[in-house]
Amino acid sequence: MSTGVRVMVVDDHPMWREGVARDLTEAGHLVVATSGEGRQAVRVAAAARPDVVVLDLQLPDVSGVEVIRGLRAALPEVRVLMLSASGEPQSVLDAVKAGATGYLVKSAAPAEFLDAVRRTAAGEPVFTPSLAGLVLGEYRRLAAGPATRDDTAPRLTDRETEVLRLVAKGMSYKQIAERLGLSHRTVQNHVQNTLGKLQLHNRVELTRYAIERGLDD
Question: What is the pTM of this model?
Answer without folding.
Answer: 0.65
